[in-house]
Design a protein that fits this description.
By secondary structure, this protein is an all-alpha fold. The chain contains ten helices and no strands.
């Protein structure tokens, strides 16, 4: 049976709450006006992260980690020294592990196949730089653009009834846009990406209440994970993914949902 609970008192504006504990509790545990802290949300969050882990999708892991880093930048935006120290530590770690990372990537067939598709997309753009080959045509058109030295054991080699039209996408929303719509199409996709993220972060700072601030930030970071993941995977052809992405974009850019005049 549902038992209504009293509404928690309004929290102070986010701009005055600089500590990461308040930010983490508000975003991850649901503390804040109109949101409420409940065990169901906590278990649901654990379920999502468990599913994320067992997806064994490195691109998904990385995109969530990078979005998490952006989240903590917002939490520590007034403590720039701490952010600078953390960023420097990450750069040093990447520098010292550079050789190991490169050697690991050179042996990974999924990464090598992506590089093969990206090279094909660039060659396709060279042939049709302004109009591309048309939406949805990459999987049909990229096969003859492959080079033997770039192909892998999982490359599709020839169009036949079993594989034609199922060779897969460019494994990148950006290279897919380039091959199918030319350089203008890629430019428009990048403009759209920047505009959506700019709108989201701007909504965060212009929101009337803390609740709307967290709502805007949650939507924006969710979309950020998609746009980051889009560098190494293309998923908008799947209606389930497209509905989530464009639905969140629609909510984010809609007017009058809690912004200051």
């Amino acid at each position: 049976m549902f038992v209504p609970r009293s509404t928690p008192p309004p929290a102070p504006p986010l701009k005055g709450r600089g500590d990461v504990e308040c930010a983490a509790r508000a975003s991850l545990l649901g503390e804040g006006p109109g949101v409420g802290l409940n065990e169901g949300r906590t278990w649901l969050t654990l379920l999502f992260f468990t599913g994320l882990f067992f997806s064994f999708c490195r691109a998904a892991w990385l995109s969530v980690l990078l979005a998490g880093a952006v989240f903590f930048v917002f939490c520590f935006r007034k403590k720039w020294r701490l952010l600078a120290l953390f960023g420097t530590a990450l750069l040093l770690a990447g520098f010292f592990w550079q050789k190991t990372i490169v050697e690991s990537m050179a042996k990974d067939v999924s990464i090598l196949e992506r590089l093969n598709r990206y090279s094909c997309a660039l060659r396709m753009a060279h042939d049709r730089p302004w109009m591309g080959f048309g939406p949805g045509t990459f999987q049909f058109q990229y096969l003859p653009y492959q080079q033997p030295e770039e192909m892998t054991r999982i490359s599709v080699t020839e169009p036949n009834p079993a594989t034609y039209g199922r060779g897969g996408g460019a494994h990148s929303e950006y290279f897919q846009a380039l091959a199918e719509n030319g350089w203008p199409g890629l430019a428009l996709w990048i403009v759209l990406t920047v505009a959506v993220l700019w709108t989201g972060f701007n909504s965060f700072f212009r929101a009337k209440t803390t609740e709307y601030q967290w709502f805007a930030l949650a939507l924006t970071l969710s979309l950020l994970t998609f746009f980051l993941h889009g560098f190494v995977n293309n998923m908008l052809h799947d209606g389930r993914v497209a509905a989530l992405v464009w639905g969140m974009v629609g909510v984010l850019v809609s007017e009058g949902w809690g912004l200051k005049k």
